[in-house]
Amino acid sequence: MKFLFSILAILVTTTAILTANTASLDSALSSGPGRYRLVDESVRLESLPSSVEEFTTMRNTLATNPKGGYAMFVAAMLTYVKNKDLGTKFFTLIMDMDALSRNPGNPLNVQGYVPNANALYLVRQLDSRLYLPAIYLLGTSVDNGYSYSLPAGIEFRQATVRNAETVTLYALTTGGNSARPITLRKNDKGIWKAAEFSSVFVGASRVPQTRRTDNL
To answer: Quick one: 122 exposed, middle or buried, by C-beta within 10 A (0-12, 13-18, 19+)?
Structure first.
């Protein structure tokens, strides 16, 4: 009987902990450091910007919270697989300063900055994974090669709050993988930028099959 009561006590305690750590993103940020299971947290990516000016305007509106920062990083990914030069500039605008290098001589610089060597190594994983950015958009599927149309949503299930200005968000994927994190940091202008993002460049478990053209 004591054993049964002990098991019940553990279950009650565990349930209480899980319930206490289930929250909206806003309440998680206000509650302080910890890991939180998010409820109904998503962001809508309406369209892809076509210039640095458009990206900056969209970023300054959307990335005033961590969800928007994550969405703008996905927008940079989606752009890069279509236009590497423009996508690289977008990454510069949504990466934390620690991921950038001063290089005003680089033709792709934005206000004198470009992604540093480590960041570029990660970004270039997209060169052979053109499908990858779309796995973060709700409604995509390996069955049609992760084709997508905008607007589309990005859904979040977990957050790890480091402090009031640093949070790791985990977005769902449609590629057969668990939710993937980006750590975002708020800059002095109130814009949430990506500080750690290596996981989002890892290939999907479900990779679309491409048929080789036989011209022989």
So the answer is: middle
Domain segments of the chain as ranges:
34-201
**pLDDT digits 0-9 by tens, 164-180:** 999 999 999 999 888 99
b or e along 141-160 (b: 16 or more beta carbons within 10 Å of the residue's beta carbon)? Answer: ebeeebebeeebebbbbbbb
Return the closest-CA partner of residue 200 out of 115, 118, 116, 132.
132
The span from the CA of 171 to the CA of 71, in Å, is 10
- DSSP state, residue 212: P
Question: Rounded to an integer, what distance in angstroms lies between the CA atom of residue 90 and that of residue 51?
Answer: 9
pLDDT tens digit sequence for 114-133: 999 999 999 999 999 999 99
Q: Which amino acid is at 215?
A: N
pTM of the model: 0.87
Strands, E assignment, 34-76: 34-45
